[in-house]
Amino acid sequence: MSCCTNRVGVLPLIVAAATGAGAYGLWSSAGESEVSAAPSQESLQDSVRSKVQEAQEAQEGVPSMEDMAQVWLELASTDTPEHKALAPMVGTFSATSSFIDPGTGEEMASTGKSVNEWVLGERFVRTHFSSPEMMGMPFEGIGHIGYDRISKEYIQSWMDNWFTGIMIETGQMEGNVLTIQGKMQGPMGEERMRHVLTIDDNDHHTLEFFMQMPDGQWMSSGSIKYTRTK
User: Fold this and answer.
1) Three-class SS of residue 160?
2) 47: CB partners within 8 A, 6+ apart
3) Nearest residue to 200 (alpha-carbon basis) of 172, 175, 229, 171
4) Which residues of 41-67 are buried (b: 16+ CB within 10 A; e: fewer)?
5) How far apart are CA 77 and CA 93, in angstroms?
């Protein structure tokens, strides 16, 4: 982007420099304008040529738009082990969830459905999760997860009908286990979350939830088990 901006902005700067206050007038120490004679057409052309040469020399080493486009195309490729590792998540899955009520410590079980599909040329997996009742309330959420080849980490965004923000999490995968974590603003202030996704095989995966306590320790808050139905 900067290379394009620099190239487009060269000509106006050249003309301004060649025809500015130095060419037609200067401010005296008394604050009054002392107007000098307008430069000849020949001297103006020489000045412009000089500025053009300076600008071209300054642009040496700046990649062209074609070069930058090629770099972006290479970085946008999804032919990577990291992207392929997400393939078992694509499909329709039944979900069985189990969460711990932080007030009573009792287990709360529920069922749901997750429909996952590739989007944006198989760069991200889009998840649409829904449950008629989770922890006593209807629940629906949408997430996107993919691998950022520039930052070299997995990244996930998540939003649902329980809050109005968007949670962003990042992390790494070791073997078949993806660990991501992030933070969000909750009713009690900032909350740090961690999710651990274990891809058991092409038809089963498990998502575990953890929350960070005030003492810095991570406490398990629940899990969801997914089984492929389609």
Assistant:
1) strand
2) 17, 18, 23, 39
3) 175
4) eeeeeebbeebeeebeeeeeeeeeeee
5) 27
- The CA distance from 29 to 222, in Å, is 76
Return the SS3 of 21.
helix
Residue 46 in tokens: 């020489």
> Among 146, 150, 184, 151, which Cα is nearest to 167's?
184
Report the distance separating Cα 157 and Cα 139, nearest Å.
Answer: 17
Ordered by where they begin, the domains of the chain are 2-75 (no CATH), 81-228 (2.40.128.20)
Instruction: Return the HEC string of 103-115.
Output: CCCCEEEEEEEEE
Contact 183, 191 (CB under 8 A): yes
Instruction: Give helix 10-19 / helix 41-58 axis angle, nearest 10°.
Output: 140
Those residues whose C-beta lies under 8 Å from the C-beta of residue 98, and which sit 6 or more positions away, are 107, 108, 109, 222, 223, 224
Question: How many residues would you count in the chain?
Answer: 230
Are the CB atoms for 7 and 56 separated by under 8 Å? no
In this predicted structure, what is the pLDDT of residue 66?
84
DSSP 194-222: EEEEEEEETTEEEEEEEEE-TTS-EEEEE
Averages of pLDDT over each 10 residues, the chain, 230 residues: 42 40 38 48 64 63 78 85 97 95 84 97 97 90 96 97 94 98 84 95 97 91 96
Q: What global pTM score does this model have?
A: 0.70
Tell me the longest C-alpha to C-alpha distance in the chain. Answer: 90
